[in-house]
Amino acid sequence: MKKMRYILVPLMMMASCVQRSAQKDGGTVINGNQSVTTSNDTAKLGRLINITFFKPIHTKFRYSFFDNSGKNQRISVPGPSDSYLEAILYFDSASFAQMKAKYFLADYPKQQSVIQDFNFDWLDKDVKNELLNTDTNYHGHPDLFFGGDNKLWLLNNKLLLSKSTN
């Protein structure tokens, strides 16, 4: 029995020190100070970007949030939190044509995004193929409608959106 105590006590101490990983909460995986949400819910996306001007008929996105507020014991000095949003937004052809016309009428600085910035690892194969076969003269768009410092890449009745805050 004494031998069991010598084995169990250290194991229990080690188990209590190990950080819990991968806790699921409705499409969100939490690992330490990082949470990653993958969803098709336009309402959830609407809380991250402004979709009131052009509401997508379907979406898929991944939102990563790194909480650097210092509330986690892992971080001794708090700092600004970081977040990354990767999304594909699908539109009906009339809405997409209207959006595209407004983008090409707007005077915007040349976007320096490259195709690889939008080649998200979770994209479907057909969307990846469409992206990789895009005209090389096209360099994406800055965001005029979705609320901020986002980068956009227009495809056929859909757009890829990339946003980061840090």
Structural features:
166 residues, globular, 25% helix, alpha+beta, eight-stranded antiparallel sheet
Description:
The chain has 166 residues and is α+β, with helices and mostly antiparallel strands. It has four helices and eight strands, in the order H-E-E-E-H-E-E-H-H-E-E-E. The chain has helices at 2-17, 42-46, 93-105, 125-132, and strands spanning 23-24, 28-31, 34-39, 58-66, 82-90, 141-142, 151-154, 158-165. The chain has an eight-stranded antiparallel beta sheet. The radius of gyration is 21 Å and the shape is globular. The N and C termini lie far apart (54 Å). The model is unreliable at 8-21 (pLDDT under 50).
Radius of gyration: 21 Å
Q: Secondary-structure element order, as H and E?
A: HEEEHEEHHEEE
Characterize the main sheet: 8 strands, antiparallel
Strand order of the largest sheet: 1-2-3-4-5-8-7-6
Low-confidence stretches: 8-21
Find the count of extended strands (DSSP E, 2+ residues). Answer: 8
Percent range for β-strand residues? 25-35%
Number of alpha- plus pi-helical segments = 4
Helical residue percent band: 25-40%
Distance between the termini: 54 Å
- Rounded mean pLDDT score: 78
User: What general form does the structure show?
Assistant: globular
Which structural class do the helices and strands define? alpha+beta
